[in-house]
Design brief:
It is a single chain. By secondary structure, the protein is an alpha/beta fold. The protein is built from twelve helices and 29 strands. Helix 7 packs across helix 8 and helix 11 packs across helix 12. The protein is elongated.
Length: 549
């Protein structure tokens, strides 16, 4: 899908191939299985797979499961499903835990070379010894332990002799380094936690900054792509790979993060929304998770086209949510059938149409894509129209819908004219009495007079009741503050309406996750909660866009 428009990483890949540094491209997507993926992760997935494929290369999925206290097979399965839904197939699916034996052996190698030591400092003590950006750190009092003692202690750590936090294994690099990541970083910690893959084999686990570069090297990754916050970690990445002795050597490259207005993109904070029941779950259609977007009705192609259009740079950027919706509409407009639904129904009676008679009128499913076929829609004396399509007061010249004494065309049907308004005791309009002109049937070429616009309808006797989930931004402000994001929650972000859909949308006539354009109402899809005759549709996106390409 990715075209040949360049970005700085594609340029690096091309140069590496041209200059012979690599003879192929192998990237990887290495999520930690501790949460559901969101659209920010989609940027990493899509760019890794698309750029590798552009050069005839491949991409691995690697589950970075080095922190078992926060990980679960539920997240593993969801990550694999999300990548498959986006349309990608990894060259291989690997687990960081599969490399634990090799990682341990390399740690032993570093101890023997005098490059790693067992430290007894607590987390708090270690922070004090590390100093700060303006103050050099101080060597740990345990830094000069002998190789023999460090080996003995490290094996005892592995064998479960010590409690969590009692000891760590650290690298010997430079406590005066201006890069805080190089100040004798911890590479192993004790965690007496059962692992979802290795069970109880291990009670010590490697830190990400140690395990990750080793896993890249072991797999033969050529280009290790990550977001810009890992730029300061690259010297440690290179140090670990260099001292591991593994060849060929992978290289890390960073790009800026992508933010979207009105969107909270943080695994930790999205988890809080779920845990605090502010949303119904990770697949809540208002969530930016891939499972949430999928349930909402987003398509893989719309997400891919959006991500690719944002490009790549070394700086963080923010784009409007309108841009995401633009690519969604562009993807849906020629792929969806255009059906009729009335979300806020107003009853219409055609007084000069025979009671009990039903005729069927032919309609294109999509006037811009005739390949989607045709269907027959019923018409009778009893109809529903949208309440907003009628105005009782005398309208101005810009009004192009129904009003008293004004004639409109019912889409794919006839001209009708409203002659009488029926109200309840509280003055609310409950019914319109109208007449139709049988000579104005759609498709007959009638052009003797011009109607005041065209509106859609649903024939009442065969109409199917339905609920419509209408969504707005979950976060009210364009820029979401993580410090007080709960104060930004839009309590009106999910509204349920009840109305009717045409009989061609019966449950047994439509497929799971099929998308539709409900004429003049927006794009919709069937929600997972719909069962039997209980139709529930999610509004994917409205029809109008304010985004300028």
């Amino acid at each position: 899908m990715m075209n040949d428009n360049s970005n700085f990483i594609k340029t690096i890949m091309k140069n590496d191939l041209d200059e012979g540094r690599v003879d192929h491209i192998l990237t990887r997507f290495p999520p930690e299985p501790n949460a559901y993926l969101h659209i920010g992760h989609a940027r990493a997935i899509i760019n890794n797979f698309e750029m590798a494929a552009f050069f005839g290369g491949k991409t691995n999925l690697r589950l970075d499961d080095t922190n078992p206290s926060k990980e679960d097979t539920e997240y593993v399965e969801s990550i694999i499903n999300d990548i498959e839904w986006l349309g990608y197939k990894p060259a291989s699916i690997n687990y960081g835990s599969s490399y634990f034996d090799q990682t341990f052996d390399i740690a032993v190698k570093l101890i023997k070379e005098g490059l790693a030591f067992v430290c007894d400092l607590s987390h708090e003590e270690m922070a004090k010894y590390r100093g700060d950006i303006n103050t050099p750190g101080t060597n740990s009092p345990y830094r000069n332990r002998s190789v023999e003692e460090n080996l003995k202690l490290f094996y005892e750590m592995r064998d479960g002799k010590y409690q969590d936090g009692e000891k760590t294994l650290r690298l010997k690099i430079d406590m005066a380094s201006p890069n805080m990541n190089m100040r004798d970083p911890v590479i192993y910690r004790i965690m007496h936690v059962s692992h979802h893959q290795t069970k109880d084999k291990w009670c010590i686990y490697p830190m990400y900054d140690f395990a990750h570069p080793l896993q890249d090297a072991i797999e033969g990754i050529t280009h290790s792509l990550c977001s810009i916050e890992f730029e300061d970690h690259r010297p440690l990445y290179d140090w670990v790979v260099e001292h591991s002795g593994i060849t060929p050597v992978p290289h890390q490259y960073e790009w800026g993060r992508l933010n979207i207005t009105h969107t909270l993109m943080s695994k930790r904070y999205l988890k809080q929304l779920v845990d605090d029941k502010i949303v119904t779950g990770y697949d809540d259609p208002r969530m930016p998770t891939l499972v949430g977007l999928r349930r909402r009705g987003f398509t893989p192609d719309s997400i891919k086209n959006f991500i690719i259009s944002t490009g790549l740079s070394k700086i963080n950027s923010t784009v409007s949510y309108d841009m995401l919706e633009h690519f969604l509409r562009e993807d849906l407009k020629l792929k969806t059938k255009r059906m009729m639904a009335v979300i806020d129904p107003l009853k219409v009676t055609i007084t000069n149409y025979e009671e009990g008679k039903i005729e069927y009128l032919e309609a294109l499913n999509n006037v811009e894509n005739e390949e989607l076929g045709k269907r027959m829609i019923p018409f009778s004396r009893h109809l529903y129209i949208e309440r907003e399509d009628f105005l009782e007061e005398k309208p101005n010249k810009k009004w192009k819908r129904l009003s008293l004494g004004i004639e409109v065309r019912l889409m794919n049907a006839y001209f009708i004219k409203c002659n009488e308004v029926i109200k309840d005791k509280d003055g609310n309009i409950i019914e319109l009495k109208c007449t139709y002109d049988p000579l104005t049937k759609s498709g007959t070429g009638f052009d003797e007079r011009k109607p005041n616009g065209t509106i859609h309808f649903v024939e009442a006797t065969q109409a199917i009741k339905a609920k419509f989930n209408l969504f707005d931004f979950l976060m009210k402000n364009e820029v979401v503050s993580k410090d007080n994001f709960k104060d930004d929650i839009n309590t009106e972000s999910w509204i349920v309406k009840e109305g009717f859909v045409e009989n061609n949308l019966a449950f047994d006539k439509i497929s799971n996750e099929e998308k539709f354009q409900f004429i003049r109402n927006g794009y919709y899809t069937l929600d997972k909660e719909a069962k039997g005759n209980d139709l529930i549709f999610n509004r994917i996106v409205g029809l109008k866009s304010s985004f300028n390409v």
